[in-house]
UniProtKB/TrEMBL annotation:
The lineage of its organism: Bacteria, Pseudomonadati, Pseudomonadota, Alphaproteobacteria, Hyphomicrobiales. PROSITE patterns: HTH_TETR_2. Residues 34-53 bind DNA. Keywords: DNA-binding. InterPro entries: Homeodomain-like_sf, HTH-type_TetR-like_transc_reg, HTH_TetR, Rv0078-like_C. It comes from Phyllobacterium phragmitis. Pfam families: TetR_C_41, TetR_N. This is TetR/AcrR family transcriptional regulator. SUPFAM superfamilies: Homeodomain-like (SSF46689). The keyword DNA-binding applies. The keyword Secreted does not apply. It comes from the Bacteria.
Length: 201
């Protein structure tokens, strides 16, 4: 039997550890998740975890990175289904806020993530998110459908609003109610950016 390439073995080991940790973090939370338990579940040792991720915190970062990539793919698909670019932009933003209702995202990304990794605005994925938002907003400004302003500044304000809405939803005793309020307020916020065409006299 031919041996697998080293790169493939490394990728498989990392994938096993991330999958086992993701189940543990999503079920019992980061603090209660036992490294020995989820490494054993993956058929690996704690040494493998240290080798590939440094420590439990590094593994949490990898799990959040995986979840974030899945969220981005879902949001992109939602945007592409819309009939217009603006509607796609609105749908994508609203879907991001509503994802805060999902138990795994709530627990791992929006509760344990900030508690362990610090302020989410400093996470690497935020830079990519702001770049994407900036590009979209600049496109709307260029076509005249959104009032002229600094695209990056607007992107950062919208990103902050979405992130804080998500954190609110994930940490409140009434997440469904908070989600409805946040979605309604954010729709009005986006609507306020639009340029109103004057009716002919």
């Amino acid at each position: 039997m031919a041996h697998k390439p080293r790169s493939e073995m490394i990728a498989q080991t990392r994938a096993k550890l991330i999958a086992a940790a993701r189940r543990a973090f999503g079920t019992v939370g980061y603090a209660e998740a036992s490294m020995d338990d989820f490494t054993a579940e993956a058929g690996l040792t704690r040494g493998a975890l240290y080798h590939h991720f440094g420590d439990k915190k590094g593994l949490l970062e990898a799990v959040i990175e995986q979840i974030d990539a899945e969220m981005s793919a879902r949001l992109s698909a939602i945007s592409k289904k819309a009939q217009t670019p603006w509607q796609g932009f609105v749908d994508e933003c609203i879907a991001y806020i509503e994802m805060a209702l999902e138990p795994e995202i709530q627990r791992i990304v929006l509760r344990d993530g900030p508690a362990v990794l610090g302020d989410p605005t400093t996470w690497p994925n935020q830079s990519a998110c702001i770049r994407s938002l900036t590009g979209s907003i600049q496109g709307f400004i260029d076509e005249g459908s959104v009032a002229a302003s600094d695209a990056e500044a607007t992107a950062r304000l919208l990103n902050g609003a979405m992130l804080n809405a998500s954190l609110w939803i994930a940490n409140t005793a009434e997440p469904e109610a908070a989600s409805r309020k946040a979605v309604q307020a954010f729709r009005e916020l986006l609507d306020g950016l639009r340029v109103r065409k004057r009716e002919p006299a």
